[in-house]
Amino acid sequence: MNASSAVLDIRNLVKSFGALRATDGVSLQVRPGEIHALIGPNGAGKTTLVAQLSGQLKPDEGQIVFMGQNINEVSAHQRVGLGMVRSFQITRLFKSFSVIDNVALAVQSLQSQRGSLWRSVAKDQAVYEKAAALLKEVGLHGRADELAPALSHGEQRVLELALALATEPKLLLLDEPMAGAGPEESQRIVELIESLRRDKHMAILLVEHDMEAVFRLADRISVLVNGALIASGTPEEIRQDPQVRAAYLGDEVPA
Asked: How many whole angstroms separate alpha carbon 35 and alpha carbon 161?
């Protein structure tokens, strides 16, 4: 595809920690409206790569181009304002706040980035109306007034997605959204991610170990091993790739 039409264009990215090359010349593109899955064994460098994309780590070499702009020197906070939002592998919520208060703070954060004056969230009806709409969208509207820790682990992951959606992302970086969730909760998260592609035409880079979810959701899959991409293609191409089977998937490939 034409690089200029990619939402995200990663060009020969390198990140080393001493002698360890955690990201070894990685290049990939995420297209508008697609779910691009990044898979690989533990220690392959997936989280290090996502940390560079979101601004937590600075690459040693290469370029990160988002919506046509080189963002290597753009801060993590500014990347959120541009529309690149990361959901973390470990849920990060305000534990002493209610479910709707968590979302309202995320909504107001976006308004602040857009130049609105900082106001008391509790007095801003529009903020809470949008927060309530987001909770309804993700299926948590019935839990709005409960404290965030009262939610199950899977529900907290869904709430975290609602926080990310409050920032109106153009690209969502999902770092193991099903981690620690049970089968029913994982199914709910998969359906929510599917709805984001269907209803919002949102580009998503998905890092996930659940291969059933990956092969159900992904339009394209890239495989990272020892910091380097060994394959990138459609789910069917990845299923059939002997190098991928040998390095990671083995016989546990969803039908």
From this structure: 15
Q: What percent of the chain has pLDDT over 70?
A: 89
Spatial CA neighbour of 103 closest among 150, 145, 57: 145
Tokens 């529309």, residue located? 83
198 in the same domain as 78: yes
The range of the structural domain enclosing residue 141 comes to 93-168
> What whole-number distance in Å separates Cα of residue 194 and Cα of residue 202?
10
**Which structure tokens are listed for 181?**
């969730």
In a domain, 88, yes or no: no
231 phi and psi, to 5 degrees? -165, 150
Helices (H) and strands (E) counted in the chain, each on its own, are 9, 10
**Rounded Cα distance, 225 and 244, in Å:** 9
Query: What's residue 117's pLDDT?
Result: 45
